[in-house]
Specification:
Chain lengths: 128, 337
């Protein structure tokens, strides 16, 4: 081992350092480029508050101006199970496996995957 | 040899670090519930921090404007105008004055197909609870709908609705104007490219990081599933695009569709179109004219867009597509249409 270190030139050390940096960069690049597991993301007032994997069943509550909103993840689908907002449109929307459920009164947005953008990747925005 | 490798490394390393240090422009996107809808702002920036700061500022500009013209809030300038209808002029901010001025311009141009005094009719309908008002109530309130009874005093910055019971509703124009205000704020923060989308009222500027135009999908007014389905795509920049459709807020009653775009002359939903998309240089004109053309119908609507100097895609009540020559090369229809 000692002889190996002794025989290492400055150029070898620089090459070694370069290789470590390149592999570290590779990790970051591949993380950004490769799709991660499908997620359920809950945003409150535009801020991402919770993110759960879609594969694991769970039920949880999110506070809002109209009380707690209960969100359920089951069988790779998500829904607003219980809401106390005036029209409860979010609750009526039922289960989604992709896309977005929005509760305007409670300012809650539940999105599965990356929403509609998943299937319409090349579109930057939608009018209508 | 060793020396050569060493020199090569010394030359390459700084290049490596410089290329790592200078971040390339990326797309940053955020969504927030504002003005009773979802507003998404997309910007191109080399710095996430700067992008975030600019987006948050633009959101707050929209939020502040939204508070001034909120139909349902007691504290808004719009409510003050409505409460003082037939009583006294109300002093308003430049933004509120600006949006009302432009609303009047579109009302005049469209011969009243767009009318911001539609408030007394709008409040009779509830599209979520599927409430269809009595015919008599609709007829009675029609006398309160007339944009010519809005009196602006520019020197005093005041607005007066001539008759008691009149109500301004800027819902058909406000989101487009909000997009204009947000875009001005982003530009002030040195953002050179991006999109402001106040729901379907969109303003795009600059180019994407790869140098291409922004790609805006136009929703199919009769989609078969809940997921967004497109009828066409528009590739554009430095333009505003808005769509008015009969599929956003509606209910069906005896096979008839009752939706939220009311004809100011009848008080009932306009029935000649399924959707109208307008492409213009400003958000407020795209938003306002899309409503005006929807109410006017395909024939009068095409005449109106020609006069107004904007472009349009009209899907009539039977699904027929009408377009202006200006959309050639800008809008492509999906294969099925």
């Amino acid at each position: 081992m000692k002889t190996v270190i002794k025989n290492t030139t400055v150029a070898d050390k620089l090459l070694f350092l370069f290789m470590i940096m390149a592999s570290l960069a590779g990790i970051f690049i591949s993380r950004a480029a490769l799709p991660q597991g499908r997620e359920v993301v809950v945003e409150i007032n535009g801020e991402k508050e919770y993110a759960f994997v879609l594969d694991q069943d769970r039920t949880f509550s999110v506070p809002g101006p109209y009380g707690d909103t209960v969100i359920e993840i089951r069988n790779k689908k998500a829904r607003v199970k219980e809401a106390h907002c005036p029209n409860r449109l979010c609750e009526k929307q039922g289960w989604i496996s992709k896309g977005v459920i929005v509760c305007m009164p409670n300012r809650i947005m539940v999105s599965v995957g990356s929403g509609a953008a998943n299937s319409l990747k090349e579109v930057d925005a939608i009018t209508g | 040899m060793k020396k050569k490798i060493l020199i090569l490394c010394c030359v390459l390393f700084p290049v490596f670090f410089v290329s790592c240090g200078k971040a390339k422009p990326s797309i940053y996107k955020k969504t927030k519930p504002l003005m009773d809808t979802l507003v998404t702002i997309t910007v191109v920036s080399a710095s996430e921090e700067e992008a975030d700061k600019a987006i948050e500022k633009a959101f707050s500009v929209i939020g502040q404007f939204g508070n001034k013209i909120n139909f349902f809030s007691d504290k808004s300038e719009l409510s003050a105008i409505n409460k003082n209808a037939g009583i006294a002029p109300v002093k308003v901010s430049d933004e509120t004055m600006g949006v009302i001025e432009r609303a009047l311009f579109i009302s005049e141009k469209s011969g009243g197909a767009f009318d911001p005094t539609i408030g007394p009719e709008i409040r009779l309908w509830d599209f979520y609870k599927k409430v269809r008002p009595e015919d008599a109530a609709i007829k009675k309130n029609l006398s309160l709908v007339n944009f010519r009874d809005i009196i602006l005093d520019h020197s005093k910055s005041t607005v007066l609705l001539k008759r008691n019971g009149m109500m301004l509703d800027l819902g058909g124009i406000a989101k487009g104007y909000a997009a204009d205000l947000a875009l001005a704020s982003l530009r002030q923060d040195k953002i050179a490219a991006g999109i402001v989308a106040a729901a379907g009222d969109i303003r795009a500027f600059g180019l994407k990081p790869d140098g291409t135009l922004w790609n805006i999908g136009i929703k199919n007014p009769r989609q078969k599933s809940e997921a967004d389905e497109l009828i066409a795509r528009a590739r554009l920049t430095n333009k505003a695009i808005s769509t008015s459709g009969d599929y956003e807020r509606y209910f069906m009653d005896n096979g008839r569709r009752f939706h939220h775009i009311l004809d100011p002359k009848t008080g009932y939903p306009a029935s000649q179109c399924r959707s109208v998309t307008v492409i213009s240089d400003s958000g407020i004109f795209a938003d306002g004219f899309s409503t005006a053309v929807f109410v006017s119908g395909p024939e009068k609507g095409m005449e109106l867009v020609r006069q107004a100097g904007v472009d349009a895609v009209i899907i009539d009540k039977d699904g027929g597509i009408h377009t202006t020559p200006g959309i050639k090369g800008m809008v492509t229809f999906e294969d099925s249409h």
